[in-house]
């Protein structure tokens, strides 16, 4: 890394307590204009017009620095048993080379994180995490669990290559085998001596891949290689799209779910198996919650008025007959749907599709209606195609 690159990033820096990613300088060279902090690391959040970034994603392809999706690596003789102990989803059928979307839940049934699990071997797992300190939680649980495991954060940093042209770009970069991966499968790949893991996953609900770099010193090289191959094929540098993820009703940790939420109120029942023989941290709590029922539910909303700019920076109250019945967690204007859409938590008594209410915003109240979600591609066919 040259001095000029390092100095140019300093205008975004908060100091050494927030880490740069292996791709931070490359993203800056390729047009990043702003960064946020996620898992104690910088993530590019601004490459110009977010609407253009959305259209680049859904029509062509974008390359995103998502090294902030840190890996919690679990190895050792009891790795499979311990990984299951952390998660409420049944992992017994997970194969080597397979990914699974899982929930990490605590002793009260609260959601700590919603990572992607990668099974590299029978005794080797990665949790590709959202924005919370899973490494500390896992090490704390391990200290009391009496299992033979080693838990650490390895030198692994993913990029996301997402969009309808991503397969052709990946094929040009790495050949046929990774390009033909099935949905939620991955493979290890040697790129001229640089170790990678390539998976058919991504946080976009579009056709896409994640490329996990296992040598952080090669970040510039990998980014530039993909952009040089991909740009003539329609690849744009970009950032994860709030528009697309809300269209897809993909939940964002800290925004749409927190430790205060349980899987059932978020409609994630499919990720909970209370009948499996294996024990896990939240088993007793989630059984109790299922029996008692939930007091609120996560829903989709459409709401009127002019298109909102950006997203909400606070939880807007939802009013039914003048009384608060819930709150908006994430809102955005979808240029494709030509509607304001939102994700919200609403009292169970008012959570049925078709319920009409009002959203209280800084600009006044707006009428809204609970609608089915996802708002677009309800069967998730785009990401799974091919």
Shape: globular
Structural class: alpha+beta
- Tally of individual helices: 11
Number of domains: 3
Q: What order do the strands of the largest sheet run in, or round the barrel if closed? A: 12-13-14-11-3-15
Q: What is the CATH architecture assignment of the largest domain?
A: 2-Layer Sandwich
Approximate helicity band: 10-25%
The main pleated sheet reads as: 6 strands, mixed
The total count of strands amounts to 21
Distance between the termini: 39 Å
Task: Bin the strand percentage.
Answer: 25-35%
Looking at this structure, what is the CATH superfamily of the largest domain?
Probable tRNA modification gtpase trme, domain 1
Name the average pLDDT: 96
**CATH fold title of the largest domain:** Gyrase A, domain 2
Report the C-alpha radius of gyration, rounded. 21 Å
- pLDDT below 50 for ≥5 consecutive residues: which ranges? 1-6
The CATH C-level class name of the largest domain: Alpha Beta
């Amino acid at each position: 890394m040259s001095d000029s690159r390092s100095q140019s990033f300093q205008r975004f820096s908060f100091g050494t307590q927030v880490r740069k990613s292996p791709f931070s300088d490359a993203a800056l060279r390729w047009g990043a204009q702003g960064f946020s902090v996620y898992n104690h690391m910088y993530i590019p959040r601004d490459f110009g017009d977010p609407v253009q970034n959305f259209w680049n994603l859904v029509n062509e392809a974008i390359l995103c620095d998502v090294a902030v999706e840190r890996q919690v690596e679990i190895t050792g003789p009891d790795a499979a048993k311990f990984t299951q102990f952390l998660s409420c989803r049944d992992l017994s059928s997970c194969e080597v080379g397979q990914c699974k979307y899982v929930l990490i839940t605590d002793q009260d049934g609260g959601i700590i994180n919603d990572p992607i699990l990668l099974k590299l071997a029978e005794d080797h797992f990665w949790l590709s995490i959202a924005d919370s300190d899973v490494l500390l939680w896992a090490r704390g649980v391990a200290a009391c669990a009496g299992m033979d495991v080693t838990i650490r954060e390895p030198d692994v940093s993913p990029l996301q290559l997402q969009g309808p042209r991503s397969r052709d770009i990946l094929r040009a970069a790495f050949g046929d085998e990774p390009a033909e991966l099935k949905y939620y499968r991955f493979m290890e790949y040697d790129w001229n001596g640089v170790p990678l893991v390539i998976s058919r996953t991504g946080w976009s609900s579009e056709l896409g891949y994640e490329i996990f770099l296992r040598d952080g010193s090669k970040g510039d090289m990998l980014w530039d290689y993909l952009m040089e191959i991909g740009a003539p094929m329609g690849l744009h540098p970009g950032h994860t799209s709030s528009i697309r993820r809300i269209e897809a009703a993909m939940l964002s940790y800290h925004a749409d779910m927190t430790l205060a939420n349980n899987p059932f109120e978020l409609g994630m029942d499919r990720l909970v198996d209370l009948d499996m023989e294996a024990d896990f941290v939240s088993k007793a709590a989630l059984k109790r919650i299922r029996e008692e029922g939930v007091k609120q539910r996560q829903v989709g909303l459409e709401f009127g008025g002019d298109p909102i700019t950006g997203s909400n920076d606070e939880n807007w109250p939802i009013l039914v007959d003048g009384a608060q019945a819930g709150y908006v967690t994430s809102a955005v204007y979808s240029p494709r749907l030509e509607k304001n859409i939102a994700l919200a938590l609403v009292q169970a008594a008012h959570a049925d599709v078709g319920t009409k209410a009002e959203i209280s915003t800084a600009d006044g109240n707006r009428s809204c209606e609970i609608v089915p979600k996802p708002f677009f591609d309800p069967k998730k066919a785009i990401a799974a195609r091919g």
